[in-house]
Amino acid sequence: MDTTIKILFINNEHAEYLLVGDLLRQVRHTDYRLTWCDRLEYAMDELMTDQYDVVLLDYHWGNGNGRDLLEGARTMGCQVPILVMTDEMEAELDRQIIRTGASDYLVKGSIDSQLLERTLRYAIERKAAELKLARLAHYDILTNVPNRILFRDRLEHALQLAERGQRPFTLMYMDLDDFKLVNDSYGHDVGDALIRACAERLSTCMRKSDSVARIGGDEFTILLEATASTTSIVHIAQKIVTEITRPYYLSGQQVTIGCSLGIAVYPDAGRDADTLQKHADMAMYQAKQEEGSTYRFFTEVMNEQARRQLVLEGELRQALSEGEFVLHYQPRIDIGSGNMVALEALIRWCHPQRGLLMPEAFLATAESSGLIVDIGYWVVQQACEDLRRLRALQSPALNVAVNLSLRQFTDNSLVTRIAGILAETGVDSRHLEFELTETTVMANLDRVSLCIRALAQMGVNFALDDFGTGVSSFVHLQRIPLSTLKIDRQFIDNIDSNANDRRLVRSMIAFAHSMEKNVVAVGVESKAQLSFLRQCRCDQVQGFHLCEPVAFDELDRVLALRASG
């Protein structure tokens, strides 16, 4: 192993080069190899070769100085410690040199072999410690690629270079498809190994000037410097998709994974870091909507969609503050008695210009912007107040079902806020039911399960919406206290004409009953569907054939009709 300390000496005085060489020869316990560079304009190329352990730089060069070299070395990410030599000690120069990136400085007339050797050694050791700390702070521990912090720094640097030189560059966002399924199926050790393998494959797709970073669980970013053409970007994107989707052999298992790439090119997709990141993320989301692994560029069409979404987000904030949301209720009917037993609360937006809007017109934006959390609390509050009003009208005992979204479970105050609403309205918690989709539950099973169990202790009931459309094992779903399963309307649509759908629905009902769960069929639109579900001993039904969603003020009419019917 070579223990020689390699020094680059940047100075235009031959006598000083000889003097430094002589001082280093006086150090007996360490071997030093001194390389002389006597031209400042050649120094940067030599310094960046990574051949040296430390640099000695003469700061004064006739009418100029070594500041540009120091700043250039710092900008280019030079890892070698640089010691500056000056003619005399100057306090302001001292501060300036250190701020510019030097490790230390020496006054020429005061240097002896012991001081020189100690300063060199300390600079090398200190730089090594700094690099170690920087690596811990800026590199992902699992994959050893840059993390979110370093990625952002490199993105800002790429923007600076692009603005000065008008050089386009490309930002890619990559997300692994169905990574959670790998974790659930094979365990977290295999999942971690898969993430490491993906990072390695991504790195092999890059040019030397490009960089890969891991910014979250299964999300990576790729920064492509100086991308000259769309064709070259496409070739790299195709190469990434090909590499990532090749089979992996991990812990004796063959694992395959898909990926989605979003591509944002400077300056067309944005001129600042936040805009580029947002647009790359939007393009990635578009890619995820496609079947199979693919990539999508951010386009002006997406940009227009982004502008519309920002306007919609602002209108949603106003709607919440101005009280423009209303609830409509769709009854659930007991199939045996024909009695109304529950109401599902469905949000509507009374838009000042566009009229009454259905949830599909605004809920996706509410979800992506985080407004769904506050809107969700409003729904729970309003539903409980309406339930209290029904009690005051001497209506039959009804449950009210409210949908909860995944975003709401990220709010640490979810349980306390709902408990506060129940206490404020005086509603019996046993008459409140929260509906969850299987996707919501499985996205963060531990977190969701914890919240649900706390609410269940208060007496709240839970239903699994869209039953049959998910991909997870029912063993996982047994971890949460579900009382009701709602069969999705896609299974009900054709039961009066499709034998396979009839067998499937009959099996789902029997399975749910074997698990001692109530079953609700959603989307019942015909007498024939209702008749079949009655034969299968389905517990409750919901759909336009029985009653369409109505405003609260119309519920008394619906209740009266059901009572007389």
The CATH top-level class label of the largest domain: Alpha Beta
What is the number of helices? 21
What is the residue-averaged pLDDT? 86
How many independent structural domains? 3
At the fold tier of CATH, the topology name of the largest domain is TIM Barrel
For the secondary structure, the number of strands is 24
Instruction: Please give the alpha-carbon distance between the first and last residues.
Output: 94 Å
Q: Rg, please?
A: 33 Å
**Strand line-up across the major sheet:** 15-16-18-19-20-21-22-23
Q: How would you describe the shape?
A: elongated
CATH superfamily of the largest domain: EAL domain
| Main sheet attributes: strand count, strand direction, barrel closure | 8 strands, mixed, barrel
Strand content: 15-25%
What's the assembly state of these chains?
single chain
Structural class: alpha/beta
Q: Please identify, by name, the CATH architecture of the largest domain.
A: Alpha-Beta Barrel
Please bin the fraction of helical residues: 40-55%
- Taking pLDDT < 50 over at least 5 consecutive residues as the criterion, the unreliable ranges are none
